[in-house]
């Protein structure tokens, strides 16, 4: 499949505009304290981890429900393992705080 020069040029212009808007117009909000920046980043990353854990929790519940409908013990075991993994990932920050005492 051949791409015309006009399409390539349009794509290059769009990419350049996105790069310019991303790097030169986005203000940087920096805190005075570097520890605050690290804590904010940590909270953001743990929020992403929590979202992944909730997705795994939902998938585990669906797997358990489907295994109960089809009477499949191996799928049921996988569902419970996925559910347990989702719970652990969802509460990873709290588990780490309990372990470290923080």
UniProtKB/TrEMBL annotation:
Positions of transmembrane segments: 46-68, 80-99
Keywords carried by this UniProt record: Membrane, Signal, Transmembrane, Transmembrane helix
Transmembrane keyword on record: yes
Alphabetized InterPro entries for the sequence: TrbC/VirB2 (IPR007039)
Transmembrane in keyword set: yes
Residues in the signal sequence: 1-30
Domain of life: Bacteria
Name of the protein: TrbC/VIRB2 family protein
């Amino acid at each position: 499949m051949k791409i015309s020069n006009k399409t390539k040029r349009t794509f290059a212009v769009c990419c350049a505009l996105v790069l310019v808007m991303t790097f030169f117009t986005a203000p940087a909000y920096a805190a005075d304290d570097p520890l605050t920046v690290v804590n904010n980043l940590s909270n953001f990353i743990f929020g992403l981890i929590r979202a992944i854990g909730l997705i795994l929790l939902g998938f585990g519940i669906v797997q358990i429900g489907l295994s109960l409908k089809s009477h499949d013990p191996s799928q049921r075991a996988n569902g419970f393992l996925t559910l347990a993994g989702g719970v652990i990932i969802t509460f990873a920050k709290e588990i780490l705080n309990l372990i470290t005492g923080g």
